[in-house]
């Protein structure tokens, strides 16, 4: 009998105004944690409110998906931001989403940076420190979700901030354990069977097959399926069903 608990998270609330991206309602019936866009890469007040309310109704944990200020680029363009400014912008986003979540009867229980900011702080201690400082200013009890080899772990540990490791079922990996850049062919996986099988191996075998065929160790408490990936609901359902069949318990990490 496998005794493993895994959180299943997805990026949600990424519409803006009349534009909708993904099926938040359907995904909230599948995942255990929702990374809610904070308005800097996507999301607007009404979308944030609607997403938080739906998450609370389903008992899904709410995370603040903080980002660079980049609506036009969906937060996927790397930017040079002064650390003090970045700290303030992350703090702003945290406070906004947590305020709305509390008004809906919930609260933000973790932080997950988005896109270019997520990747940048994995390798840049200076930018990681700015994000961690914002968490420290707002609520030091909030853990930060990041990759296993991320620079965030050391920076956060110095400040007494917890970190949680995650893996990506629908993304390709390099032999070094990093995510293949989205602009590269095959960076995003779309076949439900393939994605689900990778999730099970990540959860039970702690390994993922890299693009060169090598086996990369991966220790993760949470597995992500992107909400903006075409067919994301089908992917998430396949992942959840396969994990359950493998004896893995689905449970939020917060």
UniProtKB/TrEMBL annotation:
Keyword Hydrolase tagged: yes
Biological-process GO terms, alphabetical: carbohydrate metabolic process
SUPFAM superfamilies: Glycoside hydrolase/deacetylase
Gene Ontology molecular functions: 5-oxoprolinase (ATP-hydrolyzing) activity; ATP binding
Pfam families the record matches: LamB_YcsF
Record InterPro entries: Glyco_hydro/deAcase_b/a-brl, LamB/YcsF/PxpA-like
Source organism superkingdom: Bacteria
EC numbers for this chain: 3.5.2.9
Catalytic activity annotation: 5-oxo-L-proline + ATP + 2 H2O = L-glutamate + ADP + phosphate + H(+)
Alphabetical keyword list: ATP-binding, Hydrolase, Nucleotide-binding
Protein's UniProt keywords contain Nucleotide-binding: yes
Gene3D superfamilies, A to Z: Glycoside hydrolase/deacetylase
Record-stated family: Belongs to the LamB/PxpA family.
Subunit structure: Forms a complex composed of PxpA, PxpB and PxpC.
HAMAP family named in the record: PxpA
Function statement: Catalyzes the cleavage of 5-oxoproline to form L-glutamate coupled to the hydrolysis of ATP to ADP and inorganic phosphate.
Annotated protein name in UniProt: 5-oxoprolinase subunit A
Source species of the chain: Planobispora longispora
């Amino acid at each position: 009998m496998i005794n493993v608990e895994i959180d299943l998270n997805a990026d949600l609330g990424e519409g803006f105004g009349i534009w909708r991206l993904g099926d938040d309602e359907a995904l909230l019936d599948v995942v255990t944690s929702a990374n809610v866009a904070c308005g800097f890469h996507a999301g607007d007040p009404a979308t944030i409110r609607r997403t938080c309310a739906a998450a609370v109704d389903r008992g899904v944990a709410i995370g603040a998906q903080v980002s660079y200020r980049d609506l036009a680029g969906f937060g996927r363009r790397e930017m040079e931001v002064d650390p003090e400014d970045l700290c303030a912008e992350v703090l702003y986003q945290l406070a906004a989403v947590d305020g709305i979540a509390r008004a809906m009867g919930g609260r933000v229980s973790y932080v997950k940076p988005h896109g270019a900011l997520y990747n940048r702080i994995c390798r840049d201690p200076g930018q990681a420190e700015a994000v961690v400082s914002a968490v420290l200013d707002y609520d030091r009890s909030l853990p930060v979700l990041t990759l296993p080899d991320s620079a965030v772990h050391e920076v956060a540990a110095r400040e007494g901030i917890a970190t949680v490791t995650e893996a990506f079922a629908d993304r390709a990996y390099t032999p070094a354990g990093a995510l293949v850049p989205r602009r590269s062919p095959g960076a995003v996986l779309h076949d439900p069977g393939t994605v689900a099988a990778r999730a099970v191996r990540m959860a039970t075998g702690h390994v993922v097959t890299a693009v060169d065929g090598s086996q990369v160790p991966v220790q993760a408490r949470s597995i992500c399926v992107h909400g903006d990936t075409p067919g994301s609901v089908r992917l998430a359902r396949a992942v959840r069903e396969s994990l359950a069949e493998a004896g893995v318990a689905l449970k939020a990490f917060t």
